[in-house]
Amino acid sequence: MPVLPLRQGKVPFGNCPACAQNVCGGRQNMKTPGPCTCPAPCHGWAAATTDPHVLNSPTWARAWRKAAAVAYHPGGADLTVVDLDNPAAIAWAQRALPSTRTVATTRGEHWIYQGAMGSVNAVRNGVDIKSTMAYARWVGPGTGTMTALPDVVRALAVKEPAIVRAVPQGLSMPALAGGGECRHRTPVYLDRGIAMAEQQITEASSAVHTTVYRTFLAVLSTHGRCGCLTDAHVARLFAAAQAKGESARHCTDAWANARTRLGL
Q: 27: how many CB neighbours lie within 10 A of its CB?
């Protein structure tokens, strides 16, 4: 794991005088972790390394002696951490996300998935995503089997496009063609997924527009290509969104945007 020391307050060590204000051209804005030419643990997440010569160097040794905690760069290890900061966030993850390796933290849990993605804060109340260009505090290896990064987590980081694709007149609930058993799972799996999606929309306390879009995107990413979605399923999702104050037009636009993003 590419690691780095954290000082009190769970924050990285600041730039050394030679790297102040990033005059050294350090790599914290790049997608590849690693220090600049300075031997100090500068530049936050980008200083994370697995190089034993760096980790055991005199400069790093001084930082380790002052460190209050250890952090790692999840994206550098091809991992994504869903950081759940409160009991409500944990309860949501238990309903909405595939189970995976779980690590208990001071305030909540880290759910760790195999695979990297962009890091985004506050995708929901008490939920941050830490992967590339971010660091997570190391609090132990956790328990459970690690799961491949699912589309439903990737969808949390996606904002609805500002430009909406034109929708044909009279199309209120544009479901995909097909309608039968989901070929990769059982019909019960689909019904449970729709119920979870309804609940996710219903429980949205803010950013309802974004929640509706992300939920549609997650449903389509799982079932959009297998022909199992019917008008009845889509109607349930639209009804949940409209109960939160969304217009029928916005539901149609959000569904069309999600399909366009996934190439359906």
A: 18
Which sign does the torsion angle of CA 159, 149, 193, 93 carry? negative
pTM here is 0.66
Residue 257 neighbours by CB under 8 Å, 6+ apart: 160, 161, 164, 165, 213
Residue (of 57, 54, 48, 60) closest to 16 by Cα position: 60
pLDDT tens profile 57-107: 999 999 999 999 999 999 999 999 999 999 999 999 998 899 999 999 999
Phi-psi region at 263: left, alpha or beta (left = phi > 0; alpha = psi -120 to 50): left
Over residues 32-60, mean pLDDT: 83
Structure token pair of residue 184: 């990769």
Q: Is 128 exposed, middle or buried (0-12, 13-18, 19+ CB in 10 A)?
A: buried
